[in-house]
Amino acid sequence: MNDVISRIKSWFQRDDRGASAVEYALIVALVAGVIGGIVYVLGSRSGDMFQRACKELTTGSTTATCAPR
């Protein structure tokens, strides 16, 4: 019985080839999630900021518009 347990333990101990690949994939997924969250939050805020800047620049102009092209 001890022989079977020691064989199973040795099989799990030496089979760690894919462990670092999985760890790197988790890190990449985490970084991508953080970047996606930042883009989501700043995307709406930057759109408002550009719209406000456009309105400020076109104040007093009769031909300029802030409509997207």
UniProtKB/TrEMBL annotation:
Q: Where does the chain cross the membrane? A: 21-42
* Pfam families for the chain: Flp_Fap
Keyword terms of this UniProt record = Membrane, Transmembrane, Transmembrane helix
InterPro entries hit by this protein = Flp_Fap
Q: Which domain of life is it from?
A: Bacteria
According to UniProt, the name of this protein is Flp pilus assembly protein, pilin Flp
What organism does the record attribute this protein to? Micromonospora inositola
Q: What does UniProt list as this organism's lineage?
A: Bacteria, Bacillati, Actinomycetota, Actinomycetes, Micromonosporales
